[in-house]
Amino acid sequence: MDKTQTESDRDLPQVRTQGLNLYYGPDRVLWSLNFDIPRGCVAAFIGPSGCGKSSYLRCLNRMNDFIPGARVEGHVLIDGADIYAPGVDVIALRRRVGMVFQKPNPFPMSIYENVAYGPRLFGVKNREALDETVRSSLEGAALWSEVKDKLNTLGTGLSGGQQQRLCIARAIATEPEVLLMDEPTSALDPLSTSRIEELIRDLKSRFTVAIVTHNMQQAARISDYTAFFLLGELVEYGPTSRIFTVPEDKRTEDYITGRFG
Amino acid sequence: MLHTRKRGTTSPHFGGWGDRVAARTALSVSTVCILIMGFILYFLVKESLPVLKATTLSELLFGMDWYPQETPPALGMFPLIMSSLAVTFLSSAIGLPVSLAIAVFTAEIAPRRLRNLVKPLLELLGFIPSIVFGFLGMVVVAPWLQDRFSLLTGLNMANASALLGMMMVPIVGSLADEALCAVPRELRDASYALGATRWETIRRVVLPSALPGILSASLLGVMRATGETMVMLMAAGGAAVIPRSLFDPVRPLTSTIAAEMGETPVGSEHYHALFFAGLILLLITLAINLLSAKIEAKGFKLKGGNL
């Protein structure tokens, strides 16, 4: 979206998290998070349920704004701009930071309309431009060949794995810079899972991907960086190859070797 | 063992006597209901058909004069049918948008605390007897209309339709609210995450998803308008002419039956004609039902692009 970036911008990490605290009412959910996600990488967040990894993910596109009583302290910088600064346009932010959810949630519309939803919101009306976006997004989500002859059928009529790829197509149709994925394969069978993992590896050439997963093998397979969360704290963060071979923290080692969690 | 048990042997578990008692109760209750419906239809047809001996079907349906007390009686119901349709249409045009707006407000916009206040209040409005609305129409709306627009009478189509529209709001609004609330959170989240505003999300995702529910809620409201008698009797004016303006008095089928049934000898042509009016009402509601089913089916046929 931002084609006028200078070289120095491009060297910056895409997502910088600085002293981030999150509260749900009186409960503190995230404790002073500090880490950077480099541009064009896949960052995986692992940790037991309730450790705050999904809550963190939802901080990156401010979806936590909808939760009554949610409060954020600290800074999240995307391309160097603080998304929690006063006066930030949340709508514009969400166009730059796409999201794929745990449960496939296509709209009850046609496949075409699902993908065209985002571009239409930004006022794209030109038929050819929409057709092109729909085609390239579905290709990008590795779904085109399966649905190209039935674009006018209901998106909710697809199989679970296809639905999730449709949701990915919908998310990338707005050409975001960062793609958030909240356990995108937890509701899918192994075959669909491996297709989506393959897809994520392809996607990182175009987007920075932040993915929450409960599946440690998945994190090891697809990510460049891994963050281990525990009780709202970031225990360890680093290159995936190191985290999974020589973790520095005893708790990380216990978790990835399956001693708890 | 479960799979070796013979059919028909009793068991307190699945398929046992408890299940069978429940199944047979449900069966007999629904059979009785269907039978009663059948009898109603049977008597309606049986009592209405003799009118065709006195006059023709086309004269009944399209005749312009309704003077049932004359000899021979003039039994043209076209003005009555048109009145019913016009009032149904006008009151729906008033009531449905208001109901939908209220439903969107309570389900999507109002904070939870306000919703918890407004929703029961709305439902309470639904308990107001229709005669109270009719009374309101007679003593409040009619004089005001008469003064404001210097009409001959304030008891007219606009008055009755407005009241009927208001009567629709509690039930349609409340049911449409339920339909909107039943739209899964995930769909809203998906829309917001794509950068949609709240209004865009309501208009493009929530409303289309809730459409079947909203449609059946609206249908209930329209049916209520078609079948409403008391308000018509009190506030519609009662002139058996085809309405040409909003402020013409009308005489729908329902209030005609209510007003005249007590005055006519059993078995007279007039008596049978009134039953025929009931049959027409039944057919109108049936037609509305079928129409809405068709609209609903069409709503699912998707519009969209071709490549």
TL;DR of this structure?
The complex is a heterodimer of chains A (261) and B (307). In chain A, strand 4 and strand 5 (81-82) form a beta hairpin.
Keywords:
heterodimer; A: 261 residues; alpha/beta; Rossmann fold; 10 strands; B: mainly alpha; MetI-like fold
Explain the overall architecture:
The complex is a heterodimer of chains A (about 260) and B (about 300). With about 260 residues, chain A is α/β, with parallel strands linked by helices. Helices cover about 35% and strands about 25% of the residues of chain A. Chain A has a domain of about 180 residues: P-loop containing nucleotide triphosphate hydrolases (Rossmann fold), CATH 3.40.50.300. Chain A contains eleven helices and ten strands. In chain A, helix 4 packs across helix 5 and helix 4 runs parallel beside helix 7. The longest helix of chain A has 14 residues. Chain A is globular. Chain B has a domain of about 180 residues: MetI-like (MetI-like fold). In chain B, about 70% of the residues lie in helices and about 0% in strands. Chain B is built from twelve helices and two strands; from the N terminus they run H-H-H-E-E-H-H-H-H-H-H-H-H-H. Chain B has a two-stranded antiparallel ribbon with strand order 1-2. In chain B, helix 9 packs antiparallel against helix 12 and helix 11 packs antiparallel against helix 12. Chain B is globular, with a radius of gyration of 25 Å. The interface between A and B is medium-sized, with 40 and 24 residues.
